[in-house]
Fold these 2 entries.
Entry 1:
Amino acid sequence: MTERRPPAARPAAKRPPSKGSASNVAPRRARSAVPRPKAGNGRRSALWRWRRSLFVGGLVSVAGIGGVASVVFNINLPPEDALRQTSFVCAADVREACGPDNAIATFSAEEDRINVPLEEVPQVLVDAVLATEDRDFFEHGGVDPVGIARAFYNDVRGRGVRQGGSTITQQYVKNVYLSSERSIARKVKEAVLAVKLERELDKEQILERYLNTIYFGRGAYGVGAASRAYFGTDVRGIGLPEAAYLAGLIRAPEAADPATAPEEATRRRETSLAAMASEGHITEAEQAAASAVPWEGHVIARRDRSKLDLVPELETIGGAYFLEEVRQQVAEKYGEGTLYGGGLRIYLTLDTEMQEAAWDAVTSTLDQPDDPAAALVAIDDLGQIKAMVGGRDIEAQEVNYALGKDGGGSGRGAGSSFKPFVLAAALQKGISLNSKFNAPAEITLPKANGGKDWVVGNYDESEQGVLDLVDATRVSSNTAYAQLMLKVGPDRVIDLAHDMGVSSELEEVNSLVLGTGDVSVLDMAEGFSTFANRGVHKDATMIAKIEQVDEDGDVRVIQETSTSSEQVLTMTEADMVTHALRQVVLSGTGRAANFGKAAAGKTGTSQENRDAWFVGYTPKLTAAVWMGYPNPPGQAEPRHMDDVHGREVTGGSFPAEIWKKFMRNATAGMDTGSFTAPKAFPGEVLNPQLQTSTTTKATGATSSTTPGASTSSTARPGGSSTTAPSQAPTTTLGTTTTTADPRVCADPSREFPFCEAPLPGGTDGEP
């Protein structure tokens, strides 16, 4: 209820008493006798009028503050996510732990991080960070009111040496647990979590985590990655100028990169140096010397970051194709999160010297802009892939020609380089190398082509007479091998090829013997390595071992590759195939591959010279070489190689030359071992009644023999031989007699106890 203020009193006039009044009635109190209210009663009345609203509001405020306090002080520290760390890749020649100093490649996404223990961080860097960011770090309990006031005061006064209001602990909490949202609630939560963190961890632990978490720009998280990103060196070796600059980067690092903002970079460094001098960490002379260091030549150029960061030395020798395949394998098995941020240490089987030899062999041979593409894969006797050339430029051509379909391509026809798988299947079936076939220029095999007649011709329409399987392999006779395929069957050949390491799908057709199936270079290298290992197949591998480093620096092995082994051919069967393939290199279609050490191999040329191959091996190293033009977009057939450097391409030309260059350099100073000569050619002799005759290039003489009617042979190669005074020595190969070339017999690299003669002209018998 509101009081009315009385009007001002006026003097009372004297009046006679009214009628009827009694003398004993008290007169009325004069209005002027009512006291006037004091000046302050108006405000008191206002509070009084609002007293109920204020009371309710107070209750609500107290309840709200209590609720907020209850929520805030009951906040628990959430579990920390593991810090993302860069993964490193090392080549086979690394003998110590793989890391940033010896890596040939790194895998990282947005975060490039190398965790460094606090005891290994230089003291000058610790001093710089503390002086710049939180000089009272070891005194406060997570939140520093004095520091906040000092930062505010310096900011208002415009002082040169400034500090943020957040402590190092608060910055760490914000980066690890919270978002970058700007709000009072987030700041309150940040402060509470900082206090709680200080109660759970000691100062050194918090500082170490902070130094490995904070972002320094250029994609680098933590001092380890930052030192390499800006100075190209390990953080353990940096000095005062580097430390001051890194400390100055912490606040908005991208705005102070010397490459784009040298003035701001200088100001940041000066700020840190001044803070260090103010705290007594450095002298004025040291401050001046560090300030005088120029940016040019001191900070390295900023690199364009990508998911695969390859050292230039390996990138220039075609190593990107190898590393890209490793990337895909690791990502598929462990996930991209682990690959790019799991701190992996990936040890490869790649030999950098062999990789360089492979790259040089390909690029020095095919050195013209319009030359065909080429690929090379080399595998050692342990199944380890030592070199891989998948193309010339992965940026321009992502398809890895060495991997066929797995590399984004389609695979290519193997041509006659597939014949050794048919030969091995024949020996496995019990057919002797002494078996003989008529090898005319062309032959028609009734109903052998899906119920239709199969017409097969030799390369260059050459008449080759009667050949045993050794000579049929040496001259790559299509007509002889087509007949052998009918005896063996494509199903048996396909099963054996898969057992030996050919992973491509193969169509069950007789023409497979001529290499109509599409295979990869890796397929062929792995398959032929089974011959080199005397019938033992070993899965080809690119990764020897993978380790993982956790946040504390502890290392555990998560993958160690032990190559599986399986005896898919007997040693005798493998040795006989090797014997036949030795003749290809010594005096057959692959003579251009002979590099002076024990080697065996096979040429291959697909129809109309679309693909050309040479696949060969020593006892310790196998290599496959392919060349051909890429499949044009929208066209079914690639370009033919009928004019490359003025020559028609066959497997015995450029591919054999590339193989020779590679093997000569790759095995320099290496004991490649020796092959084991077969003691006999056992098994069933097909067509024993045929008479084999060959005319030698060395003497022009013709020798022949008509073996007996026996259908099996265990005759030891070279078991009987005679020498005529006027002719080169003759050697009996099982049931086949040839005249040897003295130049071949004089080859000091030969380890077989007998010699072979080249066929007339030594022509390439490719299809």
Entry 2:
Amino acid sequence: MPVAIEVLLVEDNPLDALTHQAEIRKAYRNARIETVERLADALHHLERHPVDIVFADLGLPDSQGLGTIEALVDGAGNTPVVALTGRDPDEEQQQRAIDMGAQDFLYKQMTLADVYRNCISNAIRRKRLEQETLQSALTDPLTGVLNRRALMDALDRALRRADSTTDVVLAFCDVDNVKRINDTYGHSVGDDALQLVAREIQDGVPGAAVGRLGGDEFAMVIRDLDEHDALAAIRELCVRGCGLKRLGPHGIEMSASWGVVVGDGDSDAQAMLTEVDRAVHRAKQQGGTVVVYDETMRRDDLLAEQQIGQLRSQIRLGLSEFELHFQEVVDTGTRHPVAYEGLLRWNHPHRGLLPAGAFIGQLQQSNLVPDIDHWVVRQAAGLLEAVPGRLHVNVSPVTLREPEQYLHLMRELAEVHDVAGRLVLEVTEDTLIEHADAGVRALLELQEMGFAIAIDDFGTGYSSFAYLEQLPVDWLKLDGQFLRQGSYSLIEGMAHIGRTLRIPIIVEGVETQEQHDWLAAGAIECGQGYFYHRPAREPWQRSSRTIPAAIPASRQRPDRHVRDHGVV
């Protein structure tokens, strides 16, 4: 049975078209030939009817030259395209056509049946081999979906074909806990989990271009659905992807976070990728959901980028707009301040006085945290002679991860200032666990220089009391959430362990008389919070105090146990 060949002939000259049709049918008797005269009609036909090969004249009413080939190669997908010309083509033109993706270049006066027969069979075979090679180069070997490069190409093509009213949806999926699956069940089960996710995404949105960006990250480009339908499909995928999955003999809980950005023909692919990454980051912070990147987020991120630029400028200018405000740490028995914690403030020229929470994220993103830590401790050390009591300052885990420059600075400060336990460096408990090697060595060295160490927000992280005897700890600061939640028994328990280990306790978040009275009656060494005073520039300069009267003397307090560097 002769082979049936589907041919699309793009030719505006009726006589040439009849000649091509006759010679093609001599070569393939069962050939079915569709002839159109314009490039636009050819692209429209290719969108709706698959063919085996395209022959295209380079001189069309709506397209001239090799631009015709470029457009057809892009529109034909896996279908081979052959260029036709009435002029004898030069070698450079032929090579450019091939570089654009054409499979062959035919001179019209030479298009006899044998030429067509060889051209068609060779073009189809070459295109198949080309596609197999391309498929191997553009496919993720584990899951069979597109790799990162191919997915970005798909996004570029979708945006080029779209106009200002066409939705192009980019969705980013971050699979949760793949590392835990690998560590618990082995990498083969982790691979099974990723393959399952890839299949579910492909099945969830047929026709979408699905790719694996790397590790546990997938993405897809959706062109054929409007924004509403695309989001509904993505939310369904998010719900379906959560829960118990059967992977071989194992039942494993899985979930994923999704970020989505909607673009159109005016959008930029790289900008969309940046925005969808920000959206999935927000989704992970919310505990695994779908977050659509919108104009509000875009404005917030633009403000953050501007703020990062301003922060970099401030670093260069010596942080002239920054200030340290201090909050008192109060002896709960005498109600007198015994220490002051330095809190960073930015006196922004347009936004007013900003607390650290308003810009700490940008500091972390821009890797400026160590510069700030250096500035803060210099400022605090310079105030030691004027302050009656201890000064507490925070040290970031980023600074302790590579502490060489910080240690060098602290040696200089210890030589100039009498720190002697009066300058207390506060670190979170997670810092000591996650950066145990470099961080603990640095803290031990800082203790030897005379600096005291406090564990900040104790009780909110690992809360392992076992490490308190092994690590350099002079003070424990209990997070204010314990008071807010009324978790007094937990405070009592941690205070008891602190006294046993001879580590005094500071409870943060004291906001009411009742909370203060309870701390004082329970022999908690120190309290800190708005009940006593809000942060101020130099609170030790106050001429009068507003702390309430002392509690009755009948309330007994056991003796305190204070370590060498923690003199109250």
